[in-house]
Amino acid sequence: MDMDNEHTCQDCGYYHQHYIWMNGYQSINAGHCIHPPRAKNCRPRMAACPRWIPQDRGYRETFLPTE
Length: 67
Hints:
This protein is mostly beta strands and 67 residues long. It has one helix at 57-63, and strands at 15-21, 25-33, 40-42. A three-stranded antiparallel β-sheet has the order 1-2-3, with no helix packed on it. A hairpin with a 6-residue loop joins β2 and β3 (40-42). The longest helix has 7 residues, at 57-63. The protein is globular.
């Protein structure tokens, strides 16, 4: 469900993107939430749940791959 101006799973501090190795890491259209009850099979562009928190700068620098 794509929604403009709404929070999505990929923007949440609890969301962890999944990757595959194909001559380097490639992101796939899957991930999971680390907040209990730890929802699996979250899609990056899904509408966020009520537990959404923003990703702070430290999170982005530590966990997100550089381009």
